[in-house]
Amino acid sequence: MSETSAGVEIRQLHKRFKGGDHDAVDGVDLSIRDGELLVLLGPSGCGKTTLLRMIAGLEHPSAGEIYIAGRRVDQDVPPRARGIAMVFQSYALYPHRTVSGNIAFPLEAAHLPRAVIAEKVRWAAELFGIAGYLDRYPRQLSGGERQRVALCRAVVRDPQVFLLDEPLANLDAKLRNTARDELKRFQRQIKRTTVYVTHDQVEAMGLGDRIAVMDRGKVRQVGTPHEVYEDPVDTFVATFLGQPPMNLVEQPGGGGRTLLGFRPEHLLPSDHFGDREPLHPIPLIVRRVEYLGSDRYVYGTVEFAPDATVIAKLPANIGRAIPEEEGGRLDFAVPERALCHFDAQTGARVRR
Amino acid sequence: MKRVPLYAAALGFIVFAGFPFYWMFITAFKQNRDLYVGAFDTRHVPWIFNDPPTLEHVRLLFGQTDFLRWVANTLLVIVAVVIITVALAVPAGYSLARLVGRWGGRLGMGIFFTYLIPPTLLFIPFSRVIALLGLQNSLGALILVYPTITVPFCTWLVMGFVRSVPWDIEEQAMIDGYSRLAVIIRIAPRLILPGILTVVVFTFTLVMQEFVYALTFISSVDRMTVSLGVPIALVRGDVYHWGSLMAAALFTSIPLAILYNLFIDRFIQGFTMGAVKG
Ligand SMILES: Nc1ncnc2c1ncn2[C@@H]1O[C@H](COP(=O)(O)OP(=O)(O)OP(=O)(O)O)[C@@H](O)[C@H]1O
Ligand SMILES: [Mg+2]
What we know:
heterodimer, A: alpha+beta, Rossmann fold, CATH 2.40.50.140, 2 domains, six-stranded mixed β-sheet, elongated, B: mainly alpha, MetI-like fold, two-stranded antiparallel sheet, 75% helix, disordered C terminus, binds adenosine-5'-triphosphate, binds magnesium ion
């Protein structure tokens, strides 16, 4: 039983599948700290699962190095010897074993004494509240219960690193919220290094100690949820995170070389801001207003970049009096501190 | 009430499937007079016993033919061919599905095509091979030849089945403490058990009903299988011993029907297991 957990170090990792014409994972450098929950976030097909499977040892890297707890594993350490536990998106439960048989499986593989196995199974089942289902078969469980069985099976191994591939993707929205909360609490409690894959930004923001945003095989940015949201390094990260995403418009007078980025929730009526706040005026021409209960989305355009759609997200208590008819001109602004500048060509952030 | 058509349809199928058994049954126990009188007397009702039943045909089958011997021979061949087929086709099908890259599918198709070559075309070259090996007129010939039909088909069948079992579970086992080899030996067979049972049933059925090769390679009555011995011994020239033929059919098909029904439960169980979220 390992007393301490351990970090994962990834250096210049590449993976090209046989017959593929591009790298599914394209030069990833990542250092996952001891005991943290790192979320791999990115659109479908960006290589998250491939990266996770390489850490697990189910896929051989084409190039690069992987270290778990300081030990290099990518060459010849098989999955079972890497000190990891993985939860697949499908849960991969053994269909012909009961819940307790499933949870006991890795312990039986390790030839632990029976009494120890029984005790650990009970401990894990109670931890995840499935102690009442121990004699059922997976086919007799709901999706949420199966997911907990898979998590139980992962924790009884007492691994150094947890690898979770979209473990909540099959749950309905309500269950997902509670499961997310449970997962977070559990991870805080045991403080084990965890790599969590998802393409759901809400999940990523809510769960992650840090988030690694991936796109087309590359890690674009690693940082706390706050950092990647407020301080994106490029237009991809800026538009991938946030609902609705960050507005991007050409900077007036910039010759089309610079893009101006600002979050919808920062675009508010000018008179809402205090006098001392340095403002960047963005006069908005209304196209449509969407009422969403707690918020209103104002869809519109700006004069200096008429092609781009700009969205303002107004909390219910702000600007109640704004005219909503189409073509109306609104006197909106963004505080200077909330503006981001991007290179129009490369999408990279331009800092001043 | 809405179920009435359903039950009616089910009843129709039961009659359709059960009628041959019924016909076998009454024919096997009818007196010859009762069997053949219909040709002269148009008022004769053929599907009931008009005269009291008799054991005469059964006695002929067991007393004057080597029926029990043939059953034993058939069982021996079945056991041997099932073992050979499972031992070859299951690992082959598994590796074609799991281990070989894009060539797996094509190779599988190629193997399947060999199954499509009919025995009527192959028995001549085979008889040369059998003669060369000195296996003429022995059950060894059948044990050697039948796998040429069962192995390709079953390889293909297992391949398809393994593809339908998610790999996740085996990968999970590799993370949970097993090596690749241990997964193949200890975990995978249980996962593909319904596929293996299908192979057994297919092989069983094939050996039970195969005729061409048996006729080609076996000449002594005491070495025949049921499918060969029964028609050879009970069709003498143009005289059909219908009663005994049907008795033979009855005594071989009823154990088979029971066996298959036992298996079918396992199949259905196998196909509906909640292995992964679905
Ligand atoms: N076994 C494979 N053979 C060939 N290409 C593959 C294989 N597995 C994945 N790929 C390719 O690698 C790329 C990355 O796939 P990956 O499964 O890692 O994406 P992902 O980020 O997990 O996506 P998702 O969110 O949809 O699960 C994709 O373009 C995919 O088509
Ligand atoms: Mg994936």
